[in-house]
Every structure is written in structure tokens, then in C-alpha cells.
Amino acid sequence: DQQVKQNSPSLSVQEGRISILNCDYTNSMFDYFLWYKKYPAEGPTFLISISSIKDKNEDGRFTVFLNKSAKHLSLHIVPSQPGDSAVYFCAAKLQNSGGSNYKLTFGKGTLLTVNP
Amino acid sequence: DAGVIQSPRHEVTEMGQEVTLRCKPISGHNSLFWYRQTMMRGLELLIYFNNNVPIDDSGMPEDRFSAKMPNASFSTLKIQPSEPRDSAVYFCASSLAGRSYNEQFFGPGTRLTVL
């Protein structure tokens, strides 16, 4: 039972355009959401996060939007660059519940390709 | 500033053999996580430690898998005996517990192939 879902395995975008990566979740007890980026032969690296008490967080070209009622979040990259080509993972953290406080649940990832 | 270090980077072994993966977390971090990445299941948490103590091993697939953290700077993930379906990329990650959010820093991974 996947609690964090990234339904698009891949996305292709032209350089300079907007990339929108989507993520859905089922557990309303998640209180923090993170996006990680992964290049081939490397480990995932943290990109941007958002608390469940917010609906938007922006960092340069990257913006994450959270819609709690729909249990949906999205990552917008504007403008997209060829160097953004990577696998993007959505992850979620449960509210402080003893030992589970530090556990992240990841989606399966979306491969973004930005074409020059 | 060294990140999370994993060894070996690649491991090819035959079914039935014992495999040991190693991880050195970032100095000062007190939480350590082992993940497995496959095409079918994505990135799944196997086990994590807080202050060298295993907190949640519910993701460990079978008794063939075991993990230890004898001290704050070293952890192992062992598979004995290994099977072809264990072929995957295994990541170790560390973080500093106690922050409001959990930014985990990942190592480069170990690509395991079991023939």
C-alpha cells in the first residue's frame, strides 16, 4: 500500500519552460514533505521542503505547492534547465509519534528530462 | 567535508553467498537509515537507527537481512544467504535528529547484483 504516489514515471520538457512534478499521498498524519533529486550513480540530494501548515514554499527556480484537502503536492521548476534532468522523489514525514518521527516515506520517483 | 561514505560501490556475487555493505555516516549525525531502490518498489526504507539503536526494522524483508551499528561512525547491512531478487541499489543516509524536519543526506549507494 503506497502512501506516497508519483503517478508519472517520466516527464519531458523543453528548456526554458515550466516543469511540474506531482505527488499524491494518502496519510493525513504526514506533517512535512520533501523533494529529493537524484542523478545517475549518485544518492538522492535534498531539494526543497514544505511544512503541512503552509501551502507554498519557494527557493529560487523551485517552488513546492501543497493542497492538503486534496492530499496533493507539486514541484514547479521555472525555467527548466538541462541540468535539472534527474529523477525527482517526493517524500513525506509522519507527525511526531515516538520512534516514527524521523522516518520518511518516498514515492517511486519521476524521471525529468529537459531537452535543450 | 566528507558526506556519507558507502562501500563497496559495486558488488557482484553468486546466490547463496554472504554480502556485507558498509556505511560511514556524516560526523555528528545521530540517525542512520538503510534504503533499497528497485524499479518495482522505488526507494524503500529497510531499517533506521537513532543513537546507534535500531528504532524501526519493519522494512527488513526477511531474516536473511540484518543490520548493525556498533558505533556512531559505522554501520553494516548484511544479507545471508543472498538471492537474485536482492539485486538492487542500497543506500545509506544519515541525519541530525531533533530538527523540525528530517533532511537526510544520502551516500552514493552500493549496486548489488546477485547471480
What's the short version?
Chain A is 0% helix and 55% strand.
General description of the model:
The complex is a heterodimer of chains A (116) and B (115). Chain A is mainly beta and 116 residues long. Chain A is built from no helices and 11 strands. In chain A, a hairpin with a 6-residue loop joins strand 4 (30-38) and strand 5. The model of chain A has no long low-confidence stretch (mean pLDDT 92). Helix content of chain B is 0%, strand content 54%. In chain B, strands 2, 4, 5, 6, 9, 10 and 11 form a 7-stranded mixed beta sheet that branches. In chain B, strands 1-3-8-7 form a 4-stranded antiparallel beta sheet, with no helix packed on it. Chain A binds chain B through residues 32, 34, 36, 41-46, 49, 51, 89, 93, 99-109, and chain B through 4, 31, 33, 35, 41-45, 48, 50, 55-56, 91, 93, 95, 97, 100-109.
Helix content bin of chain B: under 10%
Q: What's the average pLDDT of chain B?
A: 92
Biggest pleated sheet of chain A: 6 strands, mixed
Count all strands of chain A and give the number: 11
Strand runs of chain B, count: 11
- H-E string of chain A: EEEEEEEEEEE
Helix content of chain A: under 10%
List the helices and strands and how they pair.
The complex is a heterodimer of chains A (116) and B (115).
Chain A: E1 4-5, E2 10-14, E3 19-25, E4 30-38, E5 45-51, E6 56-59, E7 62-67, E8 72-77, E9 86-94, E10 104-106, E11 110-115
Chain B: E1 5-7, E2 10-13, E3 19-24, E4 31-38, E5 42-50, E6 53-56, E7 65-71, E8 74-79, E9 88-95, E10 105-106, E11 110-114
Parallel strand pairs in B: 2-11
Antiparallel strand pairs in B: 1-3, 3-8, 4-5, 4-9, 5-6, 7-8, 9-10, 9-11
